[in-house]
Write a structure and sequence with these properties.
Elements: H1 14-20, H2 25-28, E1 37-41, H3 47-56, E2 60-65, E3 78-82, H4 88-98, E4 103-108, H5 114-127, E5 129-138, H6 165-178, H7 183-194, H8 204-218, E6 236-241, E7 245-250, H9 260-268
Parallel strand pairs: 1-2, 1-4, 2-3, 4-5
Antiparallel strand pairs: 5-7, 6-7
Helix pairs in contact: 5-8, 6-7
Length: about 270
């Protein structure tokens, strides 16, 4: 069912309404009219919950915020909790009460702090998101803000050296002549000179999102001690990223318990 996202009249922040909310349409349009369960972390005054209630029509909408939020909902389909996103026991209770089989959609518009976002993501993704479900992380760009504007942010200052192909070839030809008996040394020098590490940025939410890329590509071997600390396949089937939103899709077929041989291989490499 095609249904555009139009947030006019709901009191949603203009920047979010214009830049972020339209990004949800390709993912949420197929869910319209279905009896899904949606959890949003960080709801401010509840404007987005009211919108999701009307957009999905038959959905159960659950919100969590560190402040008290009162929403007038005659339908009884919106449920609000007060607490913190890193409180895993509270997350377990919310899931048990409204999504015992798992949430279909989870939206994180909460602290925008990498460490806290990471805790709630891995706990919910592993334990309370349905296979094939969607987990959205909003405003991940806070990691690019300077430290005096955001607690775990940092200015992006890339540092790299660029060499032309001809410069590299000439340099290593000369090195091979000087050190003909030390090919391993030549390889090390080559690695250092071309810059095997790509200049990057790891502060806050930015670092967390890059960790998700590892989890998507490498599965259980990428982040063996994240979240609950269990060696499991996280089951990220797809990541979609733009400047405002990260959408993480959970695989429909997930290996929950890797065999003993794979664990031995993983731990012996430390």
């Amino acid at each position: 069912m095609n249904k555009s996202i139009n947030t006019e009249g709901y009191g949603i922040h203009e920047g979010k309404a214009r830049h972020l909310m339209p990004s949800y349409e390709p993912f949420f349009a197929p869910l319209v009219g279905k009896g899904i369960t949606l959890l949003e972390l960080g709801i401010h005054e509840g404007a987005s919950l009211r919108f999701w209630h009307d957009y999905f029509e038959n959905a159960t909408i659950v919100g969590l915020d560190c402040n008290s939020v009162n929403i007038n909902d005659p339908t009884g389909m919106i449920h609000v909790y007060r607490g913190y996103q890193e409180d895993t026991k509270l997350l377990d209770r919310i899931a048990a009460e409204w999504a015992p089989d798992g949430f279909d959609v989870v939206i994180d518009d909460c602290s925008h702090i990498g460490k806290l976002t990471r805790i709630s993501f891995y706990h919910i993704f592993q334990n309370h998101l349905k296979q094939g479900g969607l987990y959205a992380i909003e405003d991940w760009g806070t990691g690019y803000l300077p430290w005096y504007q955001w607690p775990d942010g940092g200015c992006y200052k890339p540092k790299s050296r660029l060499y032309s192909r001809n410069q590299l070839q000439n340099s290593f030809q000369r090195l091979s002549q000087i050190f003909p008996r030390f090919p391993r040394l030549i390889g090390v020098l080559q690695r250092l000179s071309i810059g095997a590490t790509v200049p990057s940025h790891k502060y806050g939410m930015v670092g967390f999102v890059k960790e998700l890329l590892d989890a998507c590509s490498l599965g259980a071997t990428a982040i063996p001690k994240s979240g609950s600390g269990r060696y499991i396949e996280y089951g990220i089937s797809k990541l979609q990223i733009n400047a405002y939103l990260v959408v993480v899709l959970k695989a429909k077929d997930i290996m929950r318990k890797p065999n003993r041989d794979s664990l031995n291989t993983l731990t012996s490499s430390w």
